[in-house]
């Protein structure tokens, strides 16, 4: 199929890609891609006996004993294992960070976990409702999701409309917009909903902030900077989680993979107002062996048919992958 308007396929809107960033997403552990090829998009999860026999250590970010989890192959299963370890409900988990208990969007768990990474789970804390006056077309928000139906704020642009509303913080889960519950809505759809709100009118957000221990309270963060150099974990290998198909253990990412994923993630923010490193990594995988933009567009449609990408975005992603191959970054 040549480039042109793509129709969305009838897939559940609750099926999430990570940001990886990001699970996509954004990111330490989320912004890189291993060496294996696309592994059977749409395949059911493998039986437990065939899943990677890996054990990870985890804590609740606001404070808890250390738990051990294993036997998961995607983010939803990971949340279920963490919830079981701490006797909480999986929907209580907003997102996870790697190797830090802080709300650090540079360390957001996305599509990959270093084999020696320590997982910190951030759970629901205070609920809050805020009215915002949209005085400009752009609010200054970058949205990502947690891989299980929760969209949350990954970055707040300094000097923006939202930056002036100090109660809104990086890490806040967006639960409702103008009274409409958006749990289960894809992050790019949430970004579009916010962008389409009429200018010079107020709107209301219901937010849920991550729970914090008293000693963790610190100045409000603007979140991950787009130009940050996100490295993956501390181990020599990674476990790559996939929204479709089995998890795989992969080698450390190559320089091409790191640079290409970073550039595609930047393009996602520029065009769609999201950061999602698992989505970016999948697009790099799809495009690394394609010979022209039309072939790349057809492969994207087959692999990610529930997304509707602008033609200009597809061309720019194709160019970014080509630049990375040629070492032009």
TrEMBL record:
Every PDZ domain range = 129-196
Q: Where is the composition biased (Basic residues)?
A: 1-11
Question: Family assignment?
Answer: Belongs to the GIPC family.
Q: Where are the transmembrane segments?
A: none
Name assigned to this protein: GIPC PDZ domain containing family, member 2
Gene3D superfamilies found in the cross-reference section = 2.30.42.10
* SUPFAM superfamilies reported in the protein's UniProt record: PDZ domain-like
Q: Which InterPro entries match?
A: GH2_GIPC (IPR055349), GIPC1-3_GH1 (IPR056814), GIPC1/2/3 (IPR017379), PDZ (IPR001478), PDZ_sf (IPR036034)
Q: Where is this region: Disordered?
A: 1-44, 220-250
Any one GO biological process: sprouting angiogenesis
